[in-house]
Amino acid sequence: MKKLIVLLIVVGLLLMMMGCAQPAPPAKPGPEKVEAPPELYDKTWISPGKVMVGNFHPGARAEWPLTIHNGKAEPAQFELRYREPSSVEEGYIKAHSIVQDWVIIADPAPLLEGYETREVLIAVEMPEDAESPGPKWEFWIAVKDVTQAGMIQTELATKWLVTMRD
Fold first, then answer.
1. From the centroid of its chain, how far is CA 122?
2. pTM
3. Which of 43, 63, 96, 152 is the most exposed place for a label (fewest CB within 10 A)?
4. Domains in the chain, ordered, with CATH?
5. What tens digit of pLDDT does each residue of 25-69 get?
6. What is the CA radius of gyration of the chain?
């Protein structure tokens, strides 16, 4: 028993001396804030415009943060939702409506303060027993400032281009 304790202490000291990475502290809950470039400070925008997912298959999950910037001085409520594409990239097909059930939006209704930039995690998780919509398919995530007024309202969208594993 004494040998085991001594061995554990020696191994622990060796790991510390070798500079082994320590476990990262737990992530802070909540959205991550990002700074907007000066030239885009007073414009509402999202990024990225396109997410490419390769080697996807039943049971897989892909996620990507969507950055949203409120270009107004006052707070704005945004709505994030799955959207069927109006058009698709060459070689891709519109995703079947069932794909909507696979999309997870961490915060579908973020409230951003004036000129605030924030990331919202978007994921697509295909069930293991699901059938692929095709070898290459596309869906969009729409982002709309629901505090807009007037007859013309802007909706932004990011494309998700998914390629299935052979």
1. 3
2. 0.77
3. 152
4. 26-164 (2.60.40.10)
5. 444 444 555 677 777 779 999 999 999 999 999 999 999 999 999
6. 22
